[in-house]
Design brief:
The protein starts with 7 loop residues before the first strand and ends with a helix. By secondary structure, it is of the alpha/beta class. It is globular. Helices cover 45% and strands 15% of the residues. It has 12 helices and 10 strands. The chain has one domain (8-226): Alpha-Beta Barrel (TIM Barrel), CATH 3.20.20. α3 packs parallel to α4.
């Protein structure tokens, strides 16, 4: 059986901005905080990192700087997916050249590929790089829910390590595990489902909440992986009200506001995302307090 690419918590890091530009010194502060909490991997330039509004040049500079800073102490997973197979291949190759440890590749959005198209998309990308790939299923954003039959095809490709599953269909986790076997890892893409997914054989979570509470999220997930579901379930329930607030407006609007409230000013999101509403800001400050 293959060893999972990583297990535990992988934080989908926010991208800090200052005066409209990427705030690279703050990015190092955020990364150091994750490393000090024992987080084994982070995603750079994922959805939470505002990948749609980052240029390829900014992404590659982030990949390079983050990997140089983290060294071997934390895996850097680069978000390189797009709805263009050709563009994804080019950015994935360039990210590999920057030394990243793996790639997170969202399924093509807007143009809505068929199952055959999804399989072909991931296959040709996997054949173009030599590092592990995590496919990313988030139908609420892409308009397509990757079917389990496609996962079965992808599980046979050596460097496709598994799936970040954010469909919210908990029954699908069982179907994936049954059809694809233990070598195809499943990471929850939803903070509120981390413990249930692990209980069904998941390897951990790619998390938004761990931007704010990396130590606590790692404790929850490691407890679940160890089979201590009493502890894990208690922590899952404890953080549920905050998790709900973090997704009351479009991610990453709330989590960037939350980072500022706890002392890490990462700036506002780039347009078209706007600052957090006053009503939600009041609730978020109260719960964090």
């Amino acid at each position: 059986m293959k060893k999972p690419f990583f297990s535990g918590v992988c934080t989908a890091l926010v991208t800090p901005f200052l005066d409209g530009h990427v705030n690279y010194p703050m990015m190092e502060v955020l990364l150091r905080r994750q490393m000090d909490a024992g987080i084994p991997a982070v995603v750079i330039c994922g959805t939470t990192g505002e990948s749609p509004t980052l240029s390829d040049e900014e992404k590659l500079e982030l990949f390079r700087r983050c990997k140089a800073f983290a060294g071997k102490d934390c895996m850097i997973i680069a978000g390189t997916g797009s709805n263009s197979t050709e563009h994804t291949i080019a950015l994935s190759k360039a990210a590999q050249d920057q030394g990243v440890d793996g790639l997170l590749i969202v399924s093509p959005y807007y143009n809505k590929a068929t199952p055959a198209g999804l399989t072909a998309h991931y296959r040709v990308i996997a054949n173009s790089v030599d590092i592990p790939i995590i496919a990313y299923n988030v139908p609420s954003r892409t308009g397509v829910d990757i079917p389990v039959s496609v996962y079965k095809e992808l599980s046979a490709i050596e460097n496709i390590a598994g799936i970040k599953e954010a469909s919210s269909d908990i029954c699908k986790i069982t179907r994936i595990r049954h059809l694809c076997g233990d070598d195809f890892s499943i990471w929850s893409g939803n903070d509120e489902q981390a413990v249930p997914v692990i209980s069904l054989g998941g390897a951990g979570i790619i998390s938004v909440l761990s931007n704010i509470f990396p130590t606590e999220m790692q404790a929850m997930v490691l407890a679940a992986i160890a089979g201590d579901f009493d502890t894990a379930a208690e922590l899952q329930a404890h953080f549920l009200p905050l998790t709900d607030l973090l997704f009351s407006e479009v991610n990453p609007i709330p989590v960037k506001a939350a980072m500022k409230y706890i002392g890490y000013d990462c700036g506002n999101c780039r347009m078209p995302l706007t600052p957090l509403s006053a009503e939600l800001a009041k609730k978020l400050k109260a719960i964090l307090t």
